[in-house]
Amino acid sequence: MSGPGMLYVTMEPQPGLNIDQFHxxxxxxxxxxRLRIPEIFTNxxxxxxxxxxxxxxxxxxxxTDMHHLETPTYTTLRENRSKREAxxxxxxxxxxxxxxxxxxxxxxxxxxxxxxxDEEAEGLVLVSVEVTLSKDNPxxxxxxxxxxxxxxxxxxxxxxxxxxxxxxxxxxxxxGDIKLVSLHDYAKKNGLGGPEHKASMDTKWREEVFAKxxxxxxxxxxxxxxxxxxxxRDLSSLxxxxxxxxxxxxxxxxxxxxxxxxxxxxxxxxxxxxxxxYRLEGNPSPTAPVIAFVNSLLTSLHMWDPLVDLLKKARPExxxxxxxxxxxxxxxxxxxxxxxxxxxxxxxxxxxxxxxxLHALIGVSQGGATxxxxxxxxxxxxxxxxxxxxxxASSAANTxxxxxxxxxxxxxxxxxxxxxxxxxxxxxxxxFHPHTMIEKKDTVHWMTDMVSKNNVQGFNVPGLLVVGEGxxxxxxxxxxxxxxxxxxxxxxxxxxxxxxxHLPMSESPKEFLDVVVDFL
Length: 520
Description:
Alpha-Beta Plaits, single chain, Rossmann fold, alpha+beta
């Protein structure tokens, strides 16, 4: 049978399995892998039992069409398990069920759980009721469905806090005895056990249905504790694991560093299917405020390394998110990137990591323009921003300069030196303050190496503008001073970083942090 349904999985970790290892594997590998197949799975929810019964854990995935679970897209997930997944799942008692959707009724107050912020979703109550139908009465299935839909669910809908009831039956993919499973979603505060609920359990019709058509009933209660997105984001469990629990995915795209300084590097899929690498670190609490960074053209997310090291020590309350934008190295964009698409990428990244609102977004150069665009386009997703070393318009001379740089990157010297290497040297010399070029040789070599690795193909919120005093030999200071009063209704403050050029956060990370730390 084709049509919508669900994958219903109960789990009980065996004694001896580290519970943090169990959660970290499930949250950072198993679940997100499935959520990255939106044509099959529209969501993934994890529950923990509240009735002191086992299995303790339940995962539910809504499936767009049950026949997808017979296709290689799904079956290869199990056939090509990572070594870690095979070892971990071997220590978990797992029972999977496939169910076809029969009917669904929702309260006017119901919103899809995956669309809720974590603080609203976590703690929602689920009651799962399974009934086994009599084989002696061929009309059992239809009679029980009729009772559910015409009496039981309408009565449950009167229980305070009732949000939704869905009825499922054993899928044709599974076979065996036909069972009906009803899932009842309730608010954290609800009337379970109250008069309305008791009334729904004590009617003449219910007594007749159970006497004639139902031979067995099971009831479980759960509390929601984790909602999957397409990105790996569970730093909390990862931070409590030993270094030996480090993980690298079979495709090499995901790496985890366990321990107190936990780090997740992985990627998400933007709305056009482009994969964007990201790095998540800092405070591992799932409720920690998040600061995100947007790097400049030609650099990578590692341009922020010196600043991030200082920030993690000075302000340990923050979780830190960095990513590589489209057009950078391994992320060639099929169409020209615009500030709109770059802002959309940040929105997609936040959505897949289930970050409802950033504490701050900090960007430089092209990243500064992207930051400002994001603040204008998605103000509800941002508390404050810091936009650095950028201009609001590009002159004809600047356009020609970029054409010249592209030509240099695509060229090859007579001695075989790639043009991108020449461009890297020239670019860093233009970006950095003369003081940096002379006194900070290691910084110069680090940035030159980063740029040379590029693939040639390749305001309703508070804001702060920052610029290196020597950027463009002072020209950009004047340019940004010229438009700072036009940002938002009241303008924003402009601060300068001394003895720094185009990338003050890379050249002089301490001085840059001194400038922005109070604003953060």
